[in-house]
Amino acid sequence: MFAHTVAVFGAFSKKAVAYDTATGRRLWSDKTNHATADETLIYTQLGRGAALVAMDPASRAHRWSAALPSGYNVRELYGPAGGLLGLSDGEGTVIGVDVRTGRLLWKHRAPATAELRGFLNGGLIAASSTAVSALDARTGAARWERPLSASGVIVPGSGDLLFIGSARHSLDAVSSSTGRTVWTARLPAGAGDLRRDTPTVTATNGTTYVGAASLYALESATGRLRWAYEPSLPGGGDRTFLVNGRRAYILDDHKLIALDARTGRRLWSADTPGDDTAPLIAAGGLVCTGAAGVTGSGLYGWDEATGTLMWRHPLASSSGTDQWLLTSAASTLVALRNETLAAFRLP
Fold first, then answer.
1. 155 in Cβ contact with 148 (< 8 Å)
2. Total count of domains within the chain
3. Is 333 domain-assigned?
4. Global pTM?
5. Is the distance from CB of 74 to CB of 80 less than 8 angstroms?
6. Per the domain annotation, does 189 fall within a domain?
7. Domain range holding 215?
8. pLDDT digits 0-9 by tens, 282-335
9. CATH code at 215?
10. Count of Cβ atoms closer than 10 Å to residue 155 Cβ
């Protein structure tokens, strides 16, 4: 994650490690359960049973420190959103914390199997094996709850709707305000079993994009299918895709495909080292990804408008299972694999 000019990764044996993105200098490391950040601060629990802290990403100076209930170990940490951090211990106790002061605002008892899925429209979404609910961000009270018979509950980063795979090829759009079904989209058989295989969903500019075995664009207001991209090689799991402005990008059969995000029209394609790559990311006018364990391992960036390969940085890799984690800020791309960190100023 980025906080100002510092990149913080929590992938080293339950440690958070911070680096200056301008120089690559390692600033600090510390034990942590989970961490999240906004533009200026990092929020984390530094070790099991420790306090929750808000700290400066460069100096590690604490803005505030909040004692959690005795023995409380953070397993999930979401936010900040609407002035709130949402915490769960993975055993059913959900806590809301004021992001400005660290004050504990409320505590909610949920089923032991409940998992937090994120904030949406002023509510914190939680899903267990039998139900999904929305907790009021101000009070922690349940706004609504509805039975859940499928494993997949998808919470996009914006909008009013969350999504549930309600049947083999059906996706329910559910109002985060009321818990009621707004529409149901019945996708082609190529979508796979949406009850079991949770698709990736992105909603922007009135269109909801669903990445399953194929890529589907739905009208956000009605669920009507606007267009579908069927891959050259059918089957398999969810497709890596990215929606950025007027274009959608998807990896298919060793190619990066650019589509018109409104119509689905194919704009260009470019060769890639393989389909088993890191998630696509937009940075500095490029579409970037990383590949490991294949011929041509390394990092790549294509011009988002033309598909021209603008940049490549070879990096040796012997295993495709140790994939790159990419993040960006403006025209800086930061890449992590195992304990190798690299930052690039893109052209």
1. no
2. 1
3. no
4. 0.85
5. no
6. yes
7. 150-239
8. 988 999 988 876 677 888 999 999 999 999 988 776 555 456 778 877 677 888
9. 2.40.10.480
10. 22
221 inside domain: yes
Asked if pLDDT for residue 116 goes beyond 50, the answer is yes
Question: What sign does the CA torsion over 298, 299, 303, 304 have?
Answer: positive
Compute the C-alpha angle 119/57/102, nearest 5°.
Answer: 50
Q: Does 338 map to a domain?
A: no
Range in 90-94, 266-270, 274-278 the model is least confident about? 274-278
Sequential DSSP letters for 47-95: STT--EEEE-TTT--EEEEEPPSTT---SEEEEEETTEEEEE-SSSEEE
Six token digits for residue 46: 């530094």
- Distance, CA of 245 to CA of 222 (rounded, Å): 22
CB atoms within 10 A of CB 47: 13
- Rounded to whole angstroms, the Cα distance separating 87 from 77 reads 5
DSSP letters along 241-298, please? EEEETTEEEEEETTEEEEEETTT--EEEEEE-S-SSBPPPEEETTEEEEEE-SSTT-E
E strands within 168-240?
Answer: 170-175, 181-186, 200-204, 207-211, 215-219, 225-229
